[in-house]
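hey can u check if this looks right to u? its 381 residues, i copy pasted from the old doc so theres a chance i mangled smth
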Amino acid sequence: MEIFHIWDLERVNIKLKKEFLTKLNLLIKDKFFSKNKAYEFFFKDKEIPFATFKNVLKESTMKNSFVSLEIFLNICKKLEISEEELEKNILFYKTAGGVNFIQEPILPIKINPVFDMILAHNIGDGTVINPGNGRLPYFGYRQFDEFYRIAYVRKIEEIFGKINFKEKDYFLKSTRPYCPPVLSTLFFKYYSLNIKDFLSDTARIPEIIFENNERMLSVLIAFIIDEGNIDSTQIVVHLKNKLLIEDLNKICGLLGYSSTISENRIESSHNYWRLNILRKGMEKLWIDYLELNKKYPLIDLGWKGEKISNSFKIYNRANYKTGGNKDSIIKLLGKESLSVNQIAERLNMTRQGARYHMHNLINEGKIKLINKEELNWRYKL
């Protein structure tokens, strides 16, 4: 498993545990007797002012402010304290100049399929915010579904530690949670990507993902969550980026999921491409997903997973391909008006099957259309 340390991140400010700060002060006192001599030893080139050096070693400063990691890396190196020991004693960290900080940090940072899934979310429904003026870029993830929105942040916290957001009701106000710059930049570094690599027209799956089955599956699941539609017969992922669709189809091929690519022509400047994971592919994907979910519970398909699971029940019904569905539809419509989707859900049918029976029942004069609002056609006896 690959790991990254706190010093591999960019522009990090930290707060140290009180006990470790006390240890540093005692070592400095024993070795140099005065802060002046210590300063001359640690910072011969006067990279920071003497006043700054004195202040960062005060408990009051550490309690109320974040301090540059680089300063303490230098101090610990000169005191022959390992970087790893320093890392273990970091209480909080954040981007220099940032607001949101990481508490209970998980260090060193471990790269696993959850990390890859975060990347995929940022390609699928994410944006890269580049504030300019020398500030670091960071990810924003547009997600209106509360479950998936919170799950995105929980995945980040699984890798890095708990994020302390400035706003306590952050998830109630925002449908675009952000990944702090100090964390976002690691994704650029690890996958050798830049801001342009996240544009919807040009984004690709990094080659390193194709080296491991769990990593490929986690990425595919992220795209199903963000861009996928679930039917009883297939999973469809829509994107306008043909090369990205081909990358996802390559994943399906490597994992043994039956799939095809098709073009979805629409009346706009862009045509969309569809990855169709066919029924046999769905079955194997579902088995593999359940195993991956046991190992990494945050890799969770949520309600889309429930739709996939329910689709399998349709084919296990005794009257799946019999005329019994037609009579069941008549009984339901005798009680209330319903749409095709509602009938399919209640009878555990495919939408295609329900639509077929509704068409025949209309032709037979047994039911009628009562509401033809867009996407909400309803029928009754």
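The two ends are 61 Å apart (CA to CA).
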